[in-house]
Amino acid sequence: MDKQKEIALNEAYDKLMAISTNQIPVDGLEELVDPEIMGYGTTVDEEVHDLEGYIQLIKAQEEQARAAGLHFNFDRTLVHKRISAEGDIAVFVENIIATVQSDQIENQFTFRFSAVMEFKQGSWKLIHWHGSIPGDTENDTWHVEEWQREKERLEKLVAEQTTDLLQKNKELEIEAASERMRAVAMGMQKPDDIMLVISTLRKCLADLQVDSLAVVILIDNEDGTMTQWDITEIEKGELKLFQIHMDLKLVPTIAGYYENAEKQSFVIYEITGEKLNKLAQELQIIDKQNGQIFQQAIKDGVISKFFPVVKKFSHGFLEIDFNKKPPQEIETIATKMGNAFEQSYIRFLDLQKAEQQTYESKVEASLERVRGIAAAMNHSDDLRQIAEAMFKEMEMLKINPLRYGLGMINGETKEAEIWASNVDDGSYLDMLGTLSLTWHPMLQKVLDAWEAQHQEVIYELKGKELSDYYQKVGPINPNIPNLEELQDPDTDIEQFVSFFPFKSGALYAFTNGEPGEDGKSILKRFANVFEQAHIRYDDLQIAEKQARLIREERDRLEIALKELEATQDQLVQQEKLASLGQLTAGIAHEIKNPLNFVNNFSELSVELIDEAREEIKEINSKFNIQNLELSDLLDDIETNLRKIHEHGTRADSIVKSMLEHSRGGSGKMEPTDLNGLVKEFVNLSFHGMRAGKNPINVDMEFDLDDSIGDVPLIAEDFSRVIINLCNNAFDAMREKLNSNDQAPNSKDYKPKLTVRTYKKNQATFIEIEDNGPGISPDIKEKILQPFFTTKKGTEGTGLGLSITNDIIKAHGGFLEVSTNQHEGTCLTIKLSPGG
Fold this sequence. Notes:
The chain is α+β, with helices and mostly antiparallel strands.
């Protein structure tokens, strides 16, 4: 091994020993110890199998020293050091004398320490260590002599204390048994946990080797009777509990035994001879089967003497019965067990009371929830939700009937609407049907009780009455479990039906046995709650009927008002068109002829200018004259005349549009095939555009709803709407196409016109959508105004969309414009039902 490696080894080992003996902090130990280190210390628990365990051991030593104020001094002697031939493994063995000092102690001991270091990944790490403290024997390698001496000493000590320990052990066993019972009692969370206490009592007696015939607990009842819990038998680790109610007036001998035990607190009886036979006779009165077994045991000589051990506690007695003399410590056992059970029984009563109070609170909370839902009723249909909520609340309370139901009784028809809930799956069934209350004895009794408003009726349903009932009810409620068996005339099934009448009906419940008082009380309270809900239901039905009549009248008036407004709008529109027709007719008479003269004479004057040029040309050539000023003058006159003709022509077009604006069809709406009209005049507009100047290619797409059918229209007027809107769309797309001709990506633009029809909420919609340049926001608000146009020069009159909008309004509809600049425009026509 080279010098540097050996120096690193010694430094690593010295630092490791300093940390391990708590001379310096544990920081940096990870660099000195292998993660999979294994080692043993000087104590039993000091066994380490990884780095984390080694660090915890060092920190535990450090904490112990700090807590006790210890100071250490280590006198280390290196006994052995060896390095492997490869120079990667080193073994150190030391003998260390440790001196430990504090304010109170000073101790010195010697221990041996060995460590194995391995050179891994460029550094030395501890992979194993072992510490041990040598024993104080010599020439006894296996400590046999030491063990023999210790054995003899212990045997002597055991022999001296055996008797005392056996006695104390018995007392401790009894005390431990009673403590186990108290511990179980303290852990009781519900009344049923008393079974755990009783089971623990019986097991404790068995552990204490109390060989008894029987173990019973007797509870004093307020009515002078007693309840006996026979806890003698335990099967498969669970208590088999029998409860017997005893009337002490019928068994005077037994009553005398307990009266004496009441006075003395603890009694051991020895019963033989005639008294034993008398006891057996009275036991048969209380419990015939076990009394007969007891009598037979006496006859067979199995029981010749009977030793009941009775310990009184605050609410009854603990009795342990023997057929031989009880063990000497039985009084201690019975007293300890009796006192422990007394605490358990008090806990049982407290838990029982708390459980009853909790259950009562739960019942009241359930009732309050149903009351809250009833108070929040806003509609009579909510009664079903209240009934459903009530059934669910009763299921949560675990009343556990076969099924619940409500019968809403009509006193005049003597019938009931039946609402039922299946408890099996918790589902609520809607109103099942109407059932007569006079055909079956049980139902007749319910009707009588309802008419008299009795609080409850309990009816035992069995035999033919049961099968007759289910044969009748089966078709109404086929979801009843075991229906076929219940309908069988030979069935031996018996059911109890409880009815709880209220003002408008009765709540009922089917059970296998007669319901207890608690269950009946809860059902009565739910019946009262539902009665209040039904009263509110009746009030809401009256209010809803009145509200319905008001709504119907209001809706009728609203429809009439809308029809009147639509008629008024149409009359106003027709009057507007008629007035405009009269105005344009006058304009035609007053302007048409002068315009014709202007246009005709301007056109004729242009021809005369051409003739004048020819004459001047001949004169110039004949006389060899160049009159340039005259030629320029004629050019100016010709330009002026052409402008006059151009604008005269535009004025003539405006007059014609105004005449079209005022001219209508017959004015009578007739059912018209809307899809056919739309398709025909869209195509007409398209072919007109293709035949005119500057035609463009347009991709036409039709999305027409076949379900629309005929719509009331003035066909000759509405066709102008379609043509005007399509013409505008073609013009817009032509404009975008021409502007794109100057752009580098002009070939990417393909004009497309999409025409849709559809129905929504009884209205009919027509959409004409183009992918042209769109309309800017500042122009959008003006496009429906008369004489407003965005077309250049004499291309447009500004009346097309105005006329279109007026025609749509005359049809009882409206025109909506939606546009996205640079992407296109969609014009939507909405026609209301009836036009």
